[in-house]
Amino acid sequence: MKNVLIVAIGLGLGLAVLEARADTPQVICDGSESGGSGPRQYAYEVDGGGLGIMEFMVGTNDLALDSYTNLLIPENWSFAVEEQWINHSDRNKTGHGEISPGLVCWCATKGRVRWWTEDTDYALGSFTFGYNHPWVSEDVGWGLSTSLEARPPELPEFYEDWQSPVGMGLGPVHDPLGPLPGDVNEDGFIEGEDLTTVITYWGQSSLGREFGDLDGSGTVDGPDYTEVLTYWGTGSPPEPSGIPEPGTLGLLLAGSLALMGRKAKSA
Ligand SMILES: [Ca+2]
Ligand SMILES: [Ca+2]
Fold first, then answer.
1. pTM check: above 0.85
2. Backbone angles phi, psi at 213, to 5 degrees
3. What is the pLDDT of residues 95-146, one digit of tens each?
4. What residues pack around ion ligand 1 (CB closer than 5 A)?
5. What are the structural domains of the chain?
6. How far is the CA of 31 from the centre of ligand 2 (A)?
């Protein structure tokens, strides 16, 4: 009898959990970028909570479509990076499962990454959306839509709950942050190469950000130089690519020549 009662309670709890899930779409971050480093893999396991998903979106500060590679897109769905804002937590990169300080700054991202279908035949119960992206992430809101017939009017378009852990269901997720201030070459670290580019193109006009016009004034000039110096040393040094930089290459070359000379003498 006791066992029957325990089973009944267990079943009841199980049903309650199922019921909670059934009402609420969830997103689990399943990428190394969920607070980590290495290959910038962004992946979102989206569960429509019993409703057919027809659209999923997360914020981004990078509107360049070609920055997004290895896309995971459902069959017959569309993908776009659009200029439409979503809430984000200014430059916070909260670890997976921790609570984002979100409210420190409510800002809008430059845009959103969006997957969608307009055909209810392609609505999905769940899907893992994703891509690779070269830049670091920050905490950002997400949203989704389900088919109009299936979506109760009281359900909002955006579900992210900033009081819930990041990337674990209802909490915010991670998405690409724009280039860091002062980071001319957009490698996530403000260092010599950024300054060199500003000096190399100094005084030239009608060049883009990648040539050192960080503030978009049209000329590579004083404010750009100041921005690099102000943020000098911020960000994370890029991971070694295995290909030495020219300066390092020179040193290596000098070192190996010296070694060769020593070997030749000892031979
Ligand atoms: Ca840099
Ligand atoms: Ca400028």
1. no
2. -85, 75
3. 888 999 875 555 678 889 999 998 989 999 999 999 888 777 888 999 888 8
4. 183, 185, 187, 189, 194
5. 4-178 (2.60.40), 192-266 (no CATH)
6. 36
